[in-house]
Amino acid sequence: MNETHLEWQKEQERVDFVHSQIKKKQETLKQNAAGLKQGIIGLRETFWEDVTVNLDEPDDVIETQASLKQQAELLSERERSHGLLYEKLKKLARLEDSPYFGRIDFFEENETASDTIYIGIASLLDEQEENFLIYDWRAPISSLYYDFPPGPAQYETMDGTISGELELKRQFIIKNAKIKGLFDTGITIGDRLLQEILGNQANTKMKSIVATIQKEQNQIIRNEKSKVLVVQGVAGSGKTSAALQRAAYLLYTHRETLNSQNMILFSPNPLFNSYISTVLPELGEENMKQTTYKQFLESLISTAFELEDPFMQMEAFLSGEDQERISVIPYKSSLEFKSLIAGYLSILSNEGLIFRDISFRGRVLITAAEIELHFYGLDRHISISNRMRLTAEWLLKRISLFEKQEREEEWVLEEMQLLEKEDFLEVHREVQRKNRRMKAAFDESEQEEKRLRKKIVQQHFTPLKKRLKRYGFLHILETYLRLFTEQHPAIEEHKPVNWDIVSSVTRTAVGRKKLLWEDAAPFLYFRDKLIGRKSYTHIRHIFIDEFQDYSPFQFDYLKELFRGASMTLLGDLNQAIYPHSQESESLLSDEDGNVEEERIILTRSYRSTREIVEFTRTLADQGEQIIPFNREGEKPEVIQVAAKEDQYQHIISTVRDLEIKGFETIAIICKSIGESEEAYEMLRSSLNIQLMNQDATSYSKGVVVIPAYLAKGIEFDSVVICNASQEVYGRESERKLFYTACTRAMHTLTLITVGEASPFIKKIPADKYLIKKL
Ligand SMILES: Nc1ncnc2c1ncn2[C@@H]1O[C@H](COP(=O)(O)OP(=O)(O)OP(=O)(O)O)[C@@H](O)[C@H]1O
């Protein structure tokens, strides 16, 4: 037996030992859990037997309450312990088949011997609960595994830096508690293991990368010091993967003070939410709240408004039909527009807010002019929103006085006749109860009438009061629209040259209560300044994926809402596909101009084969900096056909070929939803395919037809680009969309073009792809 075999055998013996420990622990825990469960069932069954219930005297009531509380606490304590046991069992189940993936031998400075440390997705103690059989990958010492090749190494702890020598770094592939692969690794984490993992088929759910996190990704995951961490990484560089590992890391490191409810992830589309939903649970953490920016804004906007879907904005952009609208999107997305609104708000602080009369049953109770007078009579140093709150309180008080007076009106008596019998009975009982309590005899019918009047008037005033509490006395929309019509010297000089178009496009849409995607953040920002905003202080960390797709205005609005939270922003300027997409870096500075961000650049692309990366990187700005991971595959193929009908024939034969080769997730990527629908109709009788639109929330293995912007963030074994012709991808503004579509491919990329190929393809060196002209 040679040395490698001997090592392998020794390692397998250890795996066997750890596995037996896991089994033992599982047995003990299961027994404990069964005992606890029985106890809980028993406690629930006999709950009332052990409680002394006596409600005769006030003292007895107090005693009963105390006894009930004690019993309930006992039950919830047992339930909590059962929950904890269940969690431990879940953790053991995760470790059972593959207890760990890494080992390091570390000789710490000033120590006499080296420590051997095994690293897995969770920690495990030995039977005596003294020594770690497995260290959690997030433990401080585990960072050695990700950060250093064998040689001098160090890691940070709460007590400072620990230095020493990393003597060995070993990787395992363990399945069903049997070692399937064992590699001693050098500079990077196991190219061989990474090769193997990346060579696998794409899945409809993202997987965790815990065993093969790369050094530069580990910097993202373990970054603790930056309030804003910006990860600018090329397509397929692991931005999303690293962000999710980072969430798991933060939850582990700050487990006493942070939980998944304190984090929120903004993802590019609903499909993506489902795509990444299994990563955190796989790592033993609960999913954080996930939302898209559209869903988030929708939760803030009154249902009276119709909010445009960002993908519809994208469709409008792609179709190029409404040029006026498209021409003003950049301005409406900019911080200049925000400053203009801020200027308008400072005018409104002194004059110009539009109020509404407050009417009741067709009668004006308080006029808009009175409200205006009250509002502008308040101390002007107080913010508009606080003055608005004070005004609402003042109005509610005044309305209560009207309400009292109204009880005496004739209409109340008329309405009383229409009341149901139950209403009279209820009031009758209330009055009797009150009289009994007061031990006095009042005129019951007089009292009943009084109560009924009060009740009727109250019912009528409730909706009005609700409206006032929601600031319905302020005409927010009218006030906003006035910005576009009025001239005021304080803001006039800040208006852009195309203000007339900005103004007419906005008034037409917003006036009809249609919030175009580019109008939503400005309008909400304005509204918040008038009536205050929702508080999100419980959110301590926000992750924004595809942050290049946020306009400066949208991003700034988000920053204001989540003022106290730290942020991880993940983006790739080469995938900035929206008409407004941010290219500016200054956005990420804080208000005083102090840059509090840290920027990490990822240039290595892991998703696609070397051949695909060499093809796609020529489509990107500074694409020469993109480094492909060394995984080989076939060169992308460009098939040029003469007519559209031929295109579909070739898509069918390409997809069939791919299926025969065993590829399981295949995407036919089109530019727009219209083209996707057409392709779907043409292909559905020959292929088993699913059409993905903006409402899709998940997809299954097989063939999908999808517009490029919805495929963002997702990957497929094979990508077939539907019509990569000059006609479809000819404009410079379509280059990034084309790049995004092509970079979704892991193993194969086929581009079909009807007629002349896109100029972007023509710029790619001919040796980077195969071409078939038919
Ligand atoms: N360290 C790693 N180990 C194993 N797989 C990795 C690693 N880093 C990235 N990958 C894989 O590379 C692929 C791309 O990763 P991911 O989707 O996180 O990249 P991205 O930068 O968010 O991509 P894009 O911007 O193109 O959507 C995924 O399959 C991911 O599992």
From TrEMBL:
Q: Cite the UvrD-like helicase ATP-binding domain residue spans from the record.
A: 212-609
- Residues the record lists as binding ATP: G233, V234, A235, G236, S237, G238, K239, T240
Set out the biological process GO terms recorded for this chain's protein: recombinational repair
One GO CC annotation, please?
cytosol
Q: Which residues form a coiled coil?
A: 402-455
Q: Which UniProt keywords apply?
A: ATP-binding, Coiled coil, Helicase, Hydrolase, Nucleotide-binding
PANTHER family in UniProt: DNA HELICASE IV (PTHR11070:SF17), UVRD / RECB / PCRA DNA HELICASE FAMILY MEMBER (PTHR11070)
Recorded protein name is Helicase
